[in-house]
Amino acid sequence: MEAIVDAEVNEGKNDVESEVEGDGTLVPATEDDVMQFEHLLEDEKSEPPSVEGLAQSKNTELESTKLDTRLEYASVTLEKVKQEEKLQSSSESLDLSANPPGDQTSDCANNAQEQKNELQSENALMETTPISTILNGSHSGEMEKENMETCAEPANEAVTSISSVSKTCISSMPDFSLIKGEVCLDKFTIRELQEAFRATFGRQTSVKDKLWLKRRIAMGLTNSCDVPSSHFVIKDNQIVHEEAKEETPCSVSRSKVEAGSPSGDQGTEPTKDGCQDSAASSYDHIKDLELSGKRLSRPTDEYDETKENLGMEEYSVKRMRKPTRRYIEELSDFETQECVARVPIFRKNSGHVLASPKPWIRSVRESGAQSTTYSTRQDSIGGFNVRVPYVSRVRRGRPRKNFMTLMQSFHPSGMASNFVKPPLEIFLRQNVESRNKIRKARSLPMRIPQLSIVDKKRDTENAQKPDSEEESCMDTFKFDTAEENTNDNADARPALKGGPKRKHHRAWTLCEVLKLVEGVAKFGAGRWSEIRRLAFASYSYRTSVDLKDKWRNLLRASLSQVPNEKEDKFSRKHTSIPIPTPILLRVRELAEMHSQTGIEIKPSKFSGHSGKIVQGSGSGFL
DNA sequence: GTTAGGG
DNA sequence: CCCTAAC
């Protein structure tokens, strides 16, 4: 047994690694569910050989069963759309094939039991548990604990756990999990179950109800967290929670899922977990763990409904998940929503979740993984770009999600409304106008995260871009040159944004300012449309409102600054472009001239600088 | 559609 | 820059 186990373990590890590689390569490329499935399938395919070898050495029966299952899977694999079908069929095949070999599994179980009888320790239990579907859960649970304390080697941990699982379960991990989940538990005595319970929940139980214990244990193992009320709040990022909730109920579902990916299951899952952990480790290990556990179970949440309900109530007591801020908030949100319509929503959600959430999680995970490994692929993973928002790129829908998830991952603490802001600030420029953000938040509470992010991105873009093109003209005081540039940009920008989004921020160039001033001098302040038409003919992107605003700003600047006059030519640091004092002076002068009916304000003073203007305005004025 | 103001 | 009210 041991020898075999070792061999298997090794094998398992190898498999895992190979899978990991496959996973790694595939994952980045595949963002869609389909892709995901495919890749899983591929993994399975690739894996079989190793497993087979093991199986052969060990049990021919198992081998055959596995092969069958694999074949089945392979046949089924291509049908993306029929994922569920695939799962079911696979599970069925597994059941059929597995039942005969069941002896093997049963053997395992027996062995485990024997060992248990002797040892009875929690550890022993844990090891034995792997046989059932619980195993995964248990491992995850362990993982969780470990991770909690030591975040160091998530991936490794996952692998090891997997290996251990394979060890106990031997060749056909997935199989028994599917088939035996219940069986194994059944075999346990009440006492054993109680032990298991203790191991799982860390507390004794006097309950002698086998069913209850089983259920409880299964639940506990499968779900690290227990959510009293299972609802899905589909927050932008938060699908996870949903999953977790759903997950809780289903030992069965889980088994099915596993069945779905028999050979590959081990490897793939663990690897995934590892990835997640690594990614997630940055913030919330627990959550990640949960997620990982859930992923598996999720696909078939529907079946468990009955169980769910029972389980939920019962096992809400057990292991409480640390109340993360985010978690709490979500929960609260849930509750509120829940009140409206619980059951119906639940159903809906379950279905909903099935479809969408998975991808999501995956995406998240991917993003995490990539963040570490594939820094280069920023584009594909919108989230990651946050740091490096280059951007002339058009944003696509996808990135957003990732981005959000990513954001969450980084800032687990900041939730709901808060969570949006902090990340943005952290990752992006601070000098962006806070106003906009706030305002948007106000208007679009639900969408806040996305919008704000988008805006941010844009802002970042804006900030960077201007420098390269227009600014140069400004800085160098080549006023004339600026004109040409602007036109191009102007057109491009709006188009990209497409929507009613914020106009691309264009810093006012000196030339523009000059033109504006001239225009005002010529036509007078307030005739913005005219000024725009005549003086800004070349600057299509400047609207009359823009002119007005700019003028206002100029005025303000001039008023505040003029007094000091000669201080520094480019005094305004905060301003995008330093406005030369002379211009400010001119502005002020113009303002004065227009504003008052006839009061002269020391026109003589300025004659030197803006004599021309003064004259003009003066003449007009007079 | 413009302008003026506030945000 | 955005938004809105008032022209």
From TrEMBL:
Domain of life of the native organism: Eukaryota
Domain HTH myb-type: 501-559
CDD domains: SANT_TRF (cd11660)
InterPro entries assigned to the protein according to its UniProt record, in alphabetical order: Homeodomain-like_sf, Myb_dom, SANT/Myb
GO molecular function: DNA binding
Bias type Basic and acidic residues, positions: 455-467
Ranges for domain Myb-like: 508-555
Record region (Disordered): 1-28, 43-66, 82-145, 243-279, 455-474, 480-501
Chain segments annotated as transmembrane: none
Pfam families: Myb_DNA-binding
Biased composition (Polar residues): 102-123, 129-139
UniProt keyword annotations, A-Z: DNA-binding
PROSITE patterns associated with the record: HTH_MYB, MYB_LIKE
Gene3D superfamilies, A to Z: 1.10.246.220
Biased segments, Low complexity type: 88-97
Protein name: Uncharacterized protein LOC109704962 isoform X4
Species annotation: Ananas comosus (Pineapple)
